[in-house]
TrEMBL record:
Residue ranges of the TM segments: none
GO biological process: fatty acid beta-oxidation using acyl-CoA dehydrogenase; fatty-acyl-CoA biosynthetic process
Species per Swiss-Prot/TrEMBL record: Aeromicrobium flavum
Keywords noted in UniProt: FAD, Flavoprotein, Oxidoreductase, Transit peptide
Cofactor: FAD
Protein name: Acyl-CoA dehydrogenase
């Protein structure tokens, strides 16, 4: 009788073997997006961040469209029709290079495209969605206002009927893709409640001044939307949805992508810290050989692993049609908070080099400060979870 042993190689960033839970098709999607991000974005993104400009964003949008990630989880109209888990893996790989790039894709697909796909008339869908899926048209999503973020029901932007048209007046703030968008999904108060509109950005009275002086999401276009007597035909109004149901349904789509995306920033920072501490020597041996360093690495890996398991579980629920908004809140609240802490810890492990754009960590850390509060602040998601547990709303 003879025995043989096979040595198993364990991935240091996947110690428990989460990859075994993915299908070959899901791994192929991840590989394609990772390769694109590595070749097309990674070499340039630190420079874009430092300068606060994405070079040729419309060209990049077309390339992302060719890759198939714009509205990739939607059916029809030129969209890829892939699973929610596929979309999550794509978000993770995109944010592993930069949150701003994932934001471009999320706002295009999960906010602007989803809103049109879910709520617009068939004519408006046909007008915009095929071009948006191809990256030939860019969309933005106008909900947040200068004085109203977490309380969208108090928005001041207003639309009023004028014959067969609507006239919209108001301002929106912190709008990703705003100044490069071809169509803006705008939510406004009306006599019939909150309604949504697909507004071509070349309509007279519409402008989108770019927001400058950001220290986060610098490799992302962020704008204000100004609507001054913007007149659009009734056909551009979303015909059926009334109230906050419309915009909140879109926000849940975007929040789902963030659950995965934030982990990309965490993985990149963890991977960087691991390699750096193995390479850098102090007191005669690599930093990775010290107990306190290994404690940090182990704790970071645990949080990343738990976040990835949570994201995959919620992805499977979304694919099964059983994902609930409160579950999205749990994922967004946990994974962004854990990812930010991973980035902050990784930053300390590089010492002064941790603040240099020669390494990705400070960029990820700064970006996640925005991700922590957009698409619902920590406080709001905490109260969603609290209400789900107690049955008692505590927002006011």
């Amino acid at each position: 009788m003879s025995t043989s042993t096979t040595k198993v190689t364990i991935d240091p960033l996947d110690i428990i073997g989460i990859d075994d839970l993915l299908t070959p098709e899901e791994k192929a999607v991840r590989s394609s997006v990772r390769q694109f991000a590595s070749e097309r974005i990674q070499p340039y993104v630190a420079d874009w961040f430092e300068r606060g400009v994405i070079d040729e964003p419309r060209v990049l949008a077309k390339e992302l469209g060719s890759l198939g990630v714009l509205g990739m989880h939607l059916e029809g109209y030129g969209c890829a029709g892939m699973s929610a888990t596929d979309y999550g893996l794509a978000c993770l790989e995109l944010e592993a290079v930069d949150s701003g790039i994932r934001s471009l894709v999320s706002v295009q697909g999960s906010l602007a495209m989803f809103a049109i796909w879910k709520w617009a008339s068939e004519d408006v869908k046909q007008q915009w969605l095929p071009r948006m899926a191809a990256g030939e048209a860019i969309g933005c999503f106008g909900l947040t206002e200068p004085d109203h973020g977490s309380d969208p029901g108090s928005m001041r932007t207003r639309a009023r009927r004028d014959g067969g048209d609507w006239i919209i007046d108001g301002r929106k703030m912190w709008i990703t893709n705003g100044s490069i968008a071809d169509v803006a999904v705008v939510w406004a108060q009306t006599d019939e409640g909150v309604r949504g509109f697909a507004v071509p950005t070349d309509t007279p009275g519409f402008s989108a001044p770019e927001i400058k002086h950001k220290m986060s999401l610098r490799a992302s276009v962020t704008s204000e939307l100004v609507l001054d007597g913007v007149r659009i035909p009734d056909a551009y109004a979303f015909p059926e949805v009334r109230g906050l149901k419309g915009p909140l349904s879109c926000l849940n789509e975007a929040r789902y992508g963030i659950i995965w995306g934030a982990l990309g920033a965490a993985r990149s920072s963890l991977e960087t810290a691991l390699q750096y501490t193995k390479d850098r020597e102090q007191f005669g041996k690599p930093l990775a050989g010290f107990q306190l360093t290994q404690q940090k690495l182990a704790e970071m890996n645990l949080e990343y692993t738990k976040g990835l398991l949570l994201a995959l579980h919620l992805g499977r629920r979304k694919d099964a049609g059983t994902l609930q908004p409160a579950q999205v809140s749990v994922g967004k609240l946990n994974n962004v908070r854990a990812s930010l802490e991973i980035c902050r810890t990784a930053r300390t492990m590089l010492g002064a080099n941790g603040i240099s754009l020669e390494f990705p960590i400070i960029r990820h850390m700064n970006n996640l400060e925005s991700v922590l509060t957009y698409e619902g602040t920590v406080e709001m998601h905490t109260l969603v979870v609290g209400q789900t547990m107690t049955g008692l709303p505590a927002y006011r």
